[in-house]
Amino acid sequence: MSGLQRDPSDYKTHLLKASGALRQAIRTAEHSGMTSGLAPGLVQGNVVILPADWAGDFLTYCQNNPVSCPLIAVSDVGNPALSGLGRDIDIRHDLPEYNVFRHGELVETTTDIGALWQDDMVAFVLGCSFSFEDALQQAGLSVRNIDMGVNVSMYRSNIPTVPGGRFHGDMVVSMRPFRAADAIRAVQVTTRLPKAHGAPVHLGDPSLIGIADLATPDFGDAIELRDGELPVFWACGVTPQVAVRNAKPPICITHVPGKMLITDLLNAELSIL
Amino acid sequence: MSGLQRDPSDYKTHLLKASGALRQAIRTAEHSGMTSGLAPGLVQGNVVILPADWAGDFLTYCQNNPVSCPLIAVSDVGNPALSGLGRDIDIRHDLPEYNVFRHGELVETTTDIGALWQDDMVAFVLGCSFSFEDALQQAGLSVRNIDMGVNVSMYRSNIPTVPGGRFHGDMVVSMRPFRAADAIRAVQVTTRLPKAHGAPVHLGDPSLIGIADLATPDFGDAIELRDGELPVFWACGVTPQVAVRNAKPPICITHVPGKMLITDLLNAELSIL
What we know:
Two copies of one chain form a homodimer. Chain A is built from seven helices and eleven strands.
């Protein structure tokens, strides 16, 4: 894309070309790293794959917790395609890395789940904070984890989620540091993206939501908090992985935190206002 | 107003009856106290009255600082009516109490300025945070100063304003305490009211904006900050009174902080989104 004026269709064509190449690199395991800051402008997704007889409970859990689990797509039973999110997506190969849970225990990480796929599996895709990181940057704000080239810091909070069937547990949150005026702007910008966790759930003192030490995140990398900055916390799509540990389905496959599904949807297509 | 269903026109008629009675009580000096929490649903205004040869500079100052000085009406020169804000408003009598500044010094407070009015005077009305207090309450949030029945806490900050002609100075801010999740909600709610100062300008550590001690506000009353609460700061329409002290016009008349002009405009008429 060059020049100051964009043809909207050219803009999307350009992004889709980039996302297609990126997904191909992920499919061939050429890229197995985090996806934060990659494919800017396009929606990234948290993924949860469950057997069909666990799908109803999980749908209820998402419905009950739309901020941490903003559902954007559900596959047909046994079908690894998600045509609503991208014409060529095959959920068995298109994540950089997968977590495999059996009876609630993380037993394996792998870059491909072709060998694990079952005819009764259903894939759920949830919106992700990486969508609003792009919106924050477009609003002129600095996103520390992207600037540092590391994964975002994620923590288990003590904010309870609403149980859905057998799924229950506390909310996982992601944290980005901002000066107060930028934190206020970040509330405004991310409010526009309810399908990517929307506005923050907390800011300021981490102990108020059960986080003892910001320097030791439960997932992702530690991010420096500088003088005059507040930690700002958003609900995170890793929340279902805690609920899966509690529900203990025979098998559940998720993305590895920070290594998301790249879709063909524009962030702007998910945004309101 | 009774019953759960409102006729919109009845709603406004009801509010105008209440505001008319309140303005009458103020006009006769029967009410000379603060107006926070009074006339809920209706826009209240900060007032600045200046000689016409200072009006251009002040308009520029408002234009340069729309967050602290959100101009909602300007009178004709020498005309104490403000028909756009309320049919019967007479700015000489309709504030509970006035500050009179001469050459930048506060020399007098009075409940009526009929004797001080000059043929060359222009009245400016700026939106006020009391409009968004009503919106916050309607969103289910508690506003401490209203709950306590006291004036809001206001402080001189070290946030500079943009000079306009002879007017210049630092921003005055009002403070309300909220728990973090409510502070985030308050950002969303007040963003809808840019003509009533809009979103907060700061939250958290007061020293970052030059406030040494929350317990000793420069204007208004002290408000208790409870465990787990953040102070949230909004730009305040007392900012021009600091600029007037710096500009030193021969005469300037303002409202006394917390004692505002009650208008006939609905807060909802000023709100966006």
